[in-house]
Amino acid sequence: MKEPQMIRVRKHDLHDLIQKKLEAAGLSEEHADGVADSLAFADARGIHSHGAVRVDYYAERIAKGGTTIAPNFKFNKTGPSSGIFEADNGVGHVAARKAMDEAIGLAQETGVGIVGVHEMGHSGALAYFVKQAADQDMVAISVCQSDPMVVPFGGAEPYFGTNPIAFAAPRMDGEPIIFDMATTVQAWGKILDARSKGADIPPTWAVDANGEPTTDPHHVNALLPVAGPKGYGLMMMVDILSGILLGLPFGKRVSSMYTDLTKGRNLGQLHIVINPAFFTSLKEFKQNIAQMVDELHATKAAPGFSQVLYPGELAEIVETDYADAGIPIVKDIYDYLISDTVHFDQYDHAGLFVEQE
Known about the structure:
By secondary structure, the chain is α+β, with helices and mostly antiparallel strands.
C-alpha cells in the first residue's frame, strides 16, 4: 500500500473546516463548534483516530436523522454529589462537556462530583473532558461504554466495546497530566486511521471473521483486549460503571455506532471529579504531581529510549510540534473537508474508509 499524501493544517483552520462541514449536515452553530473543538483537540495531540477522520461519519449520522440536532438537555441532581445528565441523543461531545461542567460544580461544593450521562452519541477523545476538570484544579476520571467490537479474553466473537478510560490531574507550573486509553490494544479509530492511510496494522491489534490475527485493517472483525485478561477486566468495569450503573444497555446490547445511521443511540458515560482541596493542600498536591513528573524524567532510561516520559506525555510533545509545523491530515480527508458535499464517496455508509478500485 502506498503512503497517502498529507496536508499540514493549523489547529484553528482545522476547527473551522470541521465546524462548517457539520453545520452543512444540519448541526447548530453552537454544537458544531463544540464537536469541532473536541476533534481539533484530538488531532492537535496526535490522536488522529478521534479527529477529522470521524467527520464524515458524524455528518452522515446528523444528515440522516440519527443525531438530535436540537436536544433537550436536562441535569437531574440525585444527591449532594451526584446526578444524571439527559443528553437526548445529542452529539456526545457537547453533552459530555456540559455533564463535566455539572460534575465540576458538584466537586467544588462537596469535594466529589459524579455525573452519569444518558442517551448520548459518540463523544470522541475522553482526554478532552478530563482536561476540562484539571484546568480547574480538579482530578478527573471519565469512562464510556461503546458498541460491541471486542472479543472477550478466550472468546471468538465480540461482546464488550473498546470502553475507554481517561484520567487527568493538575500540576504546578505545567499543563495537567492526562492519560487516555482504550481497554483494547488499540481503539477502533486506529483501525479507521490505518484504513485512511493505506497502512497495515500489527497482528496483535485485531482478529478477522475467523478469530485469527490480521494485519489488514479492512479485514478486522473484532479488536483484542489490552494485556489479555487484565484489559478484559477493565472493559467489564467500564461497562458496569457507564452502563449497568446508569440503568442503560450493556455488553452486546449496546447500540451499534455503524449499523443504522438513521437511529439514535443510548450510550452511557460517567464522569468522576475529585477536588484535591478537600483531601490535602491543593498547592502541595500540584507540587507533588510536578515532582513526580520531574523524578520520572530523571529516571534512567532503558536501551533504545532517550528519556522516561509520564503516561500521556507523548501527546503533549506532539501538540507542541504540531503547533509549529501544523497538523498532518490525510489529503483525501482534507479534500472532503473543503468540499461542498456532506458525504464523501471514499467512505461507506458506516464512516469506514474503503479502498478505491
